[in-house]
Write a structure and sequence with these properties.
Order of helices and strands of chain A: EEHEEEHEEHEEEEEEEEHHEH
Shape of chain A: globular
Structural class of chain A: alpha+beta
Number of strands of chain A: 16
Distance between the termini of chain B: 28 Å
Strand order of the largest sheet of chain A: 1-2-3-4-5
Strand order of the largest sheet of chain B: 2-3-4
Radius of gyration of chain A: 19 Å
Number of strands of chain B: 5
Helix content of chain B: 40-55%
Distance between the termini of chain A: 55 Å
Oligomer: heterodimer
Largest sheet of chain A: 5 strands, mixed
Helix content of chain A: 25-40%
Largest sheet of chain B: 3 strands, antiparallel
Number of helices of chain A: 6
Strand content of chain B: 15-25%
Order of helices and strands of chain B: HEEEEHHHE
Number of helices of chain B: 4
């Protein structure tokens, strides 16, 4: 059995991998979060059921989750881990967002599944941005800094040809996973002050990307709508959303062709935030 | 959850609504930000954002002021003619009722 030790959001996660395949999958996915073997805040056992091709994910004290293939295995593990992390770190404000860093300040791309967060993140990493997360925006409310969550970048469909998949990308039944080591940019490992938020929208009819400033009230409402653990915070989470919105520049970002979208984002950061 | 839809109007006639004094629901969570308002409606599982004009009208919905009262206040506060104010107030109160953010006197 292989033991994978992860340090995530200041907590130690131990994963006991009963076979080499699950160990390899999780190293590809969370390799950048590997930490020293320490007293675990949470313990998982993963593997394949004996004599079958079915994967399982079992958290200490809970009934095992069963997955039909590697893609579903990673999906179920990540889903359980992210929910448990929200309980372990209920002091943090979790958002459904990607997080990037540019010039030592953090920016969020907030939006629901399918809005283009990961695809836009993948593109921006080719243009000087550093990687913090593609799925969880974790905000420390008292300092308004972003915790990095650098798991593998997960794309639901193949990226545009201008930004092809690296050779070491992992392809499963439901997604393409790009390990952090294969990203064209470095991954952030420290807390970074948050400065701007882009609420990302995608429509196939949009031919030119655009950015528009929005009011803090609108931003607060949109943040709340994308919050993952609002009830863990005062005011049912509304106060946290407002606190974030009032301290950051907030925009809507309508995406189009990725390199043009990257140019619009960078231009916005240079011109509107330099004032 | 951001309200961007136009739900159908049901239930109340316009003349009756005009005679009533709309009242903000007390069980929603409200935050003011830069003169605009965020309303969290847990029961309806919606979050709403009102611009400055809508926020003013929302605050006037105290269960005592009629639409005519609110229109007169809006006209004075925003320096617009009464006809425009009546139009804006009526539309917004209709919308707030459609979104179940108000109680009306007939509901109390």
């Amino acid at each position: 059995m292989d033991i994978l030790s992860l340090t995530v959001l200041g907590r130690n996660i131990q994963v006991q991998c009963q076979n080499s395949e699950t160990y390899a999958l999780l190293v590809a996915y969370y390799g950048h979060m590997q930490g020293q073997l320490a007293v675990a805040d949470m313990v998982y056992t993963v593997g394949k059921s004996q004599g079958s091709r079915v994967f399982f994910v079992e958290r200490e004290g809970q009934a095992p989750l069963v997955a039909a293939d590697a893609g579903e295995f990673l999906f179920l593990f990540e889903k359980d881990l992210s929910i448990e992390l929200q309980k372990l770190r209920c002091d943090l404000y979790f958002l459904h967002s990607a997080a990037l860093v540019f010039a030592e300040t953090a920016y969020l791309l907030v939006g629901p599944s399918g809005s283009g967060k990961s695809t836009t993140t993948w593109a921006l990493l080719h243009h000087g941005y550093s990687y913090a997360s593609d799925e969880l925006g974790v905000v420390h409310l008292s300092t308004l800094e972003i915790f990095p969550y650098p798991r593998a970048l997960c794309l639901k469909k193949a990226p545009p040809s201008a930004y092809p998949l690296p050779e070491t990308a992992l392809t499963t039944s439901n997604a393409f996973y790009i390990p952090v080591a294969a990203l064209p940019a470095r991954a952030v490992s420290t807390l970074t002050p948050l400065r701007a938020i882009f609420f990302i929208q995608y429509s196939p009819e949009t031919t030119r990307p655009s950015v528009q400033s929005i009011s803090r009230a609108e931003a607060g409402a949109r943040l709340f709508a994308n919050a993952l653990n609002p009830l863990a915070h005062p005011g049912e989470g509304l106060d946290g959303a407002v606190a974030i919105a009032t301290q950051c520049a907030c925009f809507t970002l309508c995406t189009a062709e990725p390199s043009a979208t990257c140019a619009v984002v960078t231009s916005t950061l240079h011109t509107r935030l330099s004032r | 959850m951001i309200d961007q839809q136009q739900p159908a109007l049901t239930g109340c006639s316009l003349p009756q609504m005009i005679a009533d004094a709309p009242k903000r629901r007390s069980d929603v969570s409200v935050r003011e930000v830069d003169g605009e308002t965020i309303i969290l409606d847990r029961r309806g599982e919606m979050i709403h954002q009102l611009n400055c004009t809508a926020s003013y009208i929302w605050k006037c919905c105290d269960g005592v002021s009629t639409l005519d009262d609110i229109s007169a206040q809006l006209a004075a506060a925003f320096d617009v003619d009464v006809q425009t104010a009546v139009h804006d107030v009526t539309l917004l109160v209709l919308r707030l009722r459609q979104l179940h953010l108000l109680e009306l006197a007939s509901d109390r």
